[in-house]
Amino acid sequence: MQNVKSLITTRSITIDKLKKYIKMANFFYDSSKINNNRYLQKYPGHILGLVFYEPSTRTMASFHAAMSRLGGTSIVIQPETSSVKKGETLEDTIRTMGIYTDAIVLRHFDKNSSELAASVTDKAVINGGDGNGEHPTQALLDIYTIYRELGKRVFTETIKVLFVGDLKNSRTIHSLIYLLELFPNIQYIFLSPEKLQMPDEIKLELKNPSRVCTSYCSGIIEEADVIYMTRIQKERFNSNFEYYEVLKDNFVLDETNMSRAKPKVIVMHPLPRGDEISKEVDKDSRAVYFKQMEYGVYMRMAILDDILSK
Ligand code: NCD
Prior knowledge:
By secondary structure, the chain is an alpha/beta fold. The protein has eleven helices and nine strands. The chain is globular and about 55 Å long.
């Protein structure tokens, strides 16, 4: 049974819901700036469970920060230091956390993990990344970043998005595409090594035909309004050899490429990065990947508020 209060896939999000999230994130952004990020006592005594079977820096820390800034607190469960190490099942771990907390963020290597988790608790389960499947809250913060940086025109004008890197395994891209499809006219350029191309089932769902490149194609940097970079997901490969073979073919964004890009392009990355963005690009004001992680806290406050207010 699907838990009605869960954020497991991006499929249940409508354009109106997306606008509501943006409005709430703006509210938390503005109030945090006014009170210098001191806690808003909106949900005192509330507890968020952070159940992370895969490594995380930003998703875990920003959910913890978001919950704290709303006046609540978090409990972290990770395999190495919990009964998962003794062989406890995902279901029993989630049942336990469902008793101790008000909502659970789950990151897991299995694509169906969030559905399974939601079936054993009546608390909200938020998918914090499920293998190479989806990462809905990252997609929401990515949309918020695009909105903050490009403005309201995203709701009316044609926006060209260049996705670069591991398009096969990047759950952040998969979820982001489903949300971008809610906008009137998004055009996609996919640049990835041959073996890491966008899955057909996702391409089939796009309103506009996409341009696909397996090595650099002329004009793509010049045309893009958004350049969304990703790392090659090493943990999804069977061997180091296979990983290093595709890594050789990966596109690297550097100052020379950036000199050809639009003056108002934005460069995004969910982070962590490998070598796909040269450090020198960090100084370019069009690189917004560090702002993106800040926007993430406000969007995650909006997500938690939406769930906890019910
Ligand atoms: C991403 C993830 O875990 O999917 N990171 C994140 O959540 N910010 C991207 C990645 O690991 O490459």
